[in-house]
């Protein structure tokens, strides 16, 4: 859709500021912003928003919305990535969260290349909504005026909980690329800034007792870097382990519900009372340290064994930086 100039400024009301500082309200912020720019007759309404803020009220709001929609799921649209909406969301919603809540900092920015294409590889943790990704995307956009597209788990696009929480197509419109090999390869071939976690879902799913320990890096990003001659910019993130502290992953139960991970922690009773807090995370400072760029090899020299070895070498280099920065 085309954005009219007079609609490019979402004004924070007192209610929005309240939602920003009251954890169950973050989901309201996301949906209200979407509805400012998109017609969404199936979306949440004012009464349902109010119920989000009351213990147990989300369940009543969900029932009311389901009945209002004629006992069906929200309709799926044919949404496509919209850089204009990404910019509006970045400036109007992400900015106050990244600056004042997560206090995001990008360090050693001189190591960033000047232009696309680029694969930004980051360690991923937190067992929560991917705030380490979103804050880095915001900082890269502010630093280089880049349009950044993150590679996101499939559950962010199609899990039933996400379809009820957020507008259908929300992740795709904001630039999310499905974490599937064909989608990954297509995105890289389009010469974009792609934000990627080589650990995959194993990173945020490892839990508190394995914090700061990187999981095996999948070699696909090395192979695609070589094939399309795209440099890799490794970024070490500190602070993401505290997005959901003291959490452990109940993997077997999570699989029953089709979840990428199922965290259990002291916060879970609160989440059960306020399910809208699923997009919230604990307050922590997210610091990003940009490492020197890794240049691609000649495509003729690329093979799976070589790609796997180089991926694990990069993992060890990033692991070393994490230990040094944390004085472990």
TrEMBL record:
GO MF entry, a single one: acyltransferase activity
InterPro entries reported for this sequence: Plipid/glycerol_acylTrfase
A Pfam family of this chain: Acyltransferase
Transmembrane segment boundaries: 12-29, 49-67, 261-282
Entries under SUPFAM superfamilies matching the protein: Glycerol-3-phosphate (1)-acyltransferase (SSF69593)
Keyword Lipoprotein listed: no
Domain of life, source organism: Bacteria
Annotated Phospholipid/glycerol acyltransferase domain residues: 118-240
Sorted UniProt keywords: Acyltransferase, Membrane, Transferase, Transmembrane, Transmembrane helix
Protein name (record): 1-acyl-sn-glycerol-3-phosphate acyltransferase
Species of provenance: Floridaenema aerugineum BLCC-F46
């Amino acid at each position: 859709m085309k954005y009219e100039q007079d609609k490019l400024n979402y004004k924070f009301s007192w209610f929005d500021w309240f939602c920003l500082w009251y954890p169950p309200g973050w989901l309201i912020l996301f949906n209200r912003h979407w509805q400012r720019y998109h017609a969404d007759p199936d979306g949440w309404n004012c009464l349902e928003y109010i119920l989000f803020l009351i213990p147990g009220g989300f369940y009543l709001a969900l029932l009311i919305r389901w009945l209002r929609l004629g006992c069906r799921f929200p309709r799926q649209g044919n949404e496509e990535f919209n850089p204009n909406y990404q910019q509006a969301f970045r400036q109007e919603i992400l900015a106050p969260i990244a600056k004042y809540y997560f206090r995001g900092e990008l360090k050693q920015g001189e190591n960033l290349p000047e232009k696309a294409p680029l694969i930004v590889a980051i360690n991923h943790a937190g067992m929560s909504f991917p705030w380490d990704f979103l804050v880095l995307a915001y900082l890269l956009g502010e630093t280089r005026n880049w349009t950044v597209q993150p590679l996101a788990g499939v559950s962010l696009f199609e899990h039933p909980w996400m379809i009820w929480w957020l507008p259908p197509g929300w992740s795709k419109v904001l630039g999310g690329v499905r974490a599937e090999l064909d989608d990954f390869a297509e995105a890289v071939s389009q010469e974009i800034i792609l934000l990627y976690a080589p650990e995959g879902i194993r990173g945020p799913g490892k839990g508190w007792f394995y914090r700061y320990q990187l999981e095996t890096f999948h070699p696909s990003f090395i192979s695609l870097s070589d094939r399309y001659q795209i440099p890799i910019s490794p970024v070490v993130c500190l602070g993401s382990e505290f997005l959901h502290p003291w959490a452990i992953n109940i993997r077997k139960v999570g699989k029953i519900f089709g979840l990428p991970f199922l965290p259990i922690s002291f916060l879970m009773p609160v989440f059960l009372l306020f399910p809208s807090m699923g997009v919230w995370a604990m307050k922590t400072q997210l610091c990003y340290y940009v490492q020197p760029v890794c240049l691609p090899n000649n495509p003729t020299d690329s093979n799976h064994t070589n790609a796997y070895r180089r991926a694990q070498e990069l993992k060890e280099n990033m692991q070393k930086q994490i230990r040094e920065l944390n004085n472990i």
